[in-house]
């Protein structure tokens, strides 16, 4: 058996219809009537024929409560061979079950239509692309050296060496700072001259 599409945990109550037919009821009779209707909805059928079972459903204990139960049963329910029926509740139960069946059938038909369009397992495995590994380029640090004609070559090379060390140290500090900001487990980001490499 399939899953109910219409939830029977929700019971429709048409307040205008209900109040039109029950405005004269006392709060006690309203409570009994609503408890009996809820039971019919949950059971998707009639109340039991036995008055004591109906009294248990409506929590009737005192003589006044049992009298109110008898009044509600005689006024709003019809006794049949298999129990007490409320005409409106039976119509609503049958309507909800009809909607549930129709939605279930439509869902099943939609699934079957989609299933026909899906490739078989062997076709799906054959058509699945194999992922190709990609390589990530490693950033390189480029250092430019400008020669000053007034400075000797040995002095220029020592300055260039010192500058390269400073830039390398700065890029390591930037990378460490980014590690602290983004967390140790993330991809390392290198910042060179204010740009991300």
General shape: elongated
Quote the distance from N terminus to C terminus: 62 Å
* Spatial strand arrangement across the major sheet: 1-2
Task: Specify the number of helices.
Answer: 7
Q: Rg, please?
A: 41 Å
Q: How many domain modules?
A: 2
What fraction of the residues are assigned to beta strands by DSSP?
A: 5-15%
Q: Report the strand count.
A: 4
Poorly predicted runs: 1-5
Helix content: 55-70%
Mean pLDDT, all residues: 79
Order of H and E elements: HHHHEEHHHEE
Instruction: Please identify the structural class as seen in this structure.
Output: mainly alpha
How does the major sheet shape up? 2 strands, antiparallel
Which terms summarize this structure?
197 residues, 2 domains, two-stranded antiparallel sheet, disordered N terminus
Write a compact overview of the structure shown.
With 197 residues, this protein is mainly alpha-helical. The protein has helices at residues 15-22, 27-43, 51-57, 63-76, 87-117, 121-127, 153-182, and strands spanning 78-80, 83-85, 191-192, 195-196.
How does this model look, in words?
The structure is a single chain. By secondary structure, this protein is mainly alpha-helical. It has 2 domains: 1-131, no CATH class; 135-197, no CATH class. The chain has helices at residues 15-22, 27-43, 51-57, 63-76, 87-117, 121-127, 153-182; strands spanning 78-80, 83-85, 191-192, 195-196. It has a two-stranded antiparallel ribbon. Strands 3-4 form a two-stranded antiparallel sheet. Strand 3 and strand 4 form a beta hairpin. Mean pLDDT is 79; it is low at 1-5.
């Amino acid at each position: 058996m399939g899953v109910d599409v219409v939830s029977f945990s929700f019971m429709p109550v048409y307040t205008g219809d209900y109040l039109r037919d029950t405005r004269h009821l006392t709060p006690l009779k309203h409570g009994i009537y609503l408890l009996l209707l809820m039971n019919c909805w949950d059971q998707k059928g009639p109340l039991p024929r036995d008055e004591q079972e109906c009294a248990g459903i409506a929590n009737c204990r005192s003589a006044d409560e049992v009298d109110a139960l008898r009044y509600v049963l005689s006024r709003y329910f019809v006794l049949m061979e298999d129990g007490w029926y409320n005409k409106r509740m039976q119509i609503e139960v049958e309507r909800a079950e009809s909607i549930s069946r129709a939605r279930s059938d439509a869902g099943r038909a939609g699934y079957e239509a989609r299933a026909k369009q899906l490739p078989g397992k062997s076709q799906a495995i054959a058509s699945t692309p194999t992922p190709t590994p990609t390589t990530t380029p490693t950033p390189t640090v480029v250092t430019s050296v400008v020669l000053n004609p007034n400075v000797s070559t040995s002095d220029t090379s020592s300055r260039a060496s010192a500058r390269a060390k400073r830039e390398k140290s700065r890029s390591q500090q930037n990378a460490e700072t980014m590690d602290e900001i983004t967390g140790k487990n993330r991809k390392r980001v290198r910042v060179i001259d204010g740009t991300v490499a």
